[in-house]
Amino acid sequence: MPDISLLEPLVLNGVVSKFTTPEDLALLNKVPSSPVDSPYTVTWDVLKGSRQVASFNIPNSEAQVLDRLGTQQEQAKLAYVRVKKIFSPTSLTWLRQPGQIAATNAEFYVTRELQDISQSIDLLQETALWGALRGQLSYTLPDGATETVDYKLPASHLVTRGTAWTTATPKQIVNDLVLWKRLIQTHGRVRPTTAYCSVLTVQKIFDSFAANAGVVVTQGGYPMGTMLTDRMKDAYYNNAMLPGFAGLDWNVVEEVYTDANGNLQRFVGDGTSSNAEVFIGNYTDNRPLEVKYGKSADSEAPEGQYGKFTKTWKEHDPSQQQVLMELAFLPVVYRPEQYVYCSDVG
């Protein structure tokens, strides 16, 4: 058997730590992360905005006492994932062959499989992040028990559309968006900047404008022209995007994953197999959303190991090489008032 350094614990975990998050995962690529000193639970503060105005005062008098920021502490179990792959002798024949060529081939094959294991965990984290932005994350454990994390999105931020966007006029769609943005500005004290939806939802918006191409928008009784600029039209025809529409950066999420039952699922509903979802918010100011990583729960992990831990070992009967990866994590939402979520724009 060739000397494959990749099978050494320190080298193995060093390689895994350098894997990058798949570029097509819209949230996991952007959301910051931090460690938590526990393999089991995480505690975080839910902050509510305040616009309390200071009062005028005079010198040598007692200062005005301001209310503290509304804070609610939440605690939840870390979500835990533990997966492995089994390599049989027939699939790793060059592990038994001497020489550098065999070692190079073996390392290439094992690295490719490691990347696939790591990606499966990244996909799980991405599904959890979208669940957090819906206001609740629920998942079923192997024993059939269900864990649920409530992210305390205000009921008013779980919004519904007026008229279904499939038949709505441009004005009705814009009215929905203006109302939803105002919720974030009023309660969250930040400017909403970003929207996520599927390409079919963007198509509903564009189709509404196309069906009303001759309608001129007015404000205060004065004609303001049409609401889709030439830049927006070009972006839609080229990339199915509407940059800057209603003052938002629109991001199309078309990525999918395969669930435990082998069914293809979308991270963001498109209105066909699932509801047409829209997520609007400010995802950067005040660090409103974060992924927490707990200490490894594996007895063979080094002390203080956070994030993904990987190990490999040989089984003798039947003869096989096993590679295992685990992670304890949980998305946390510090400022739920910075988001609104519509489960179906229709």
Q: Pairing-aware structural class of the strands and helices?
A: alpha+beta
* Secondary-structure element series: HEEEEHEEEHEHEEHEEEEEEEE
Number of strands: 18
The oligomerization state is single chain
List unreliable stretches of 5+ residues. Answer: none
CATH level-3 fold name of the largest domain: putative capsid protein of prophage fold
Rg, nearest Å: 25 Å
List the helices and strands and how they pair.
Layout: H1 9-17, E1 33-36, E2 41-48, E3 70-77, E4 79-87, H2 100-133, E5 136-140, E6 146-150, E7 158-159, H3 170-188, E8 194-197, H4 199-211, E9 217-219, E10 222-225, H5 230-239, E11 249-252, E12 256-258, E13 264-266, E14 278-281, E15 289-294, E16 309-316, E17 319-333, E18 339-342
Parallel strand pairs: 1-15, 7-18, 8-11
Antiparallel strand pairs: 2-3, 4-17, 5-6, 8-14, 9-10, 12-13, 14-18, 15-17, 16-17
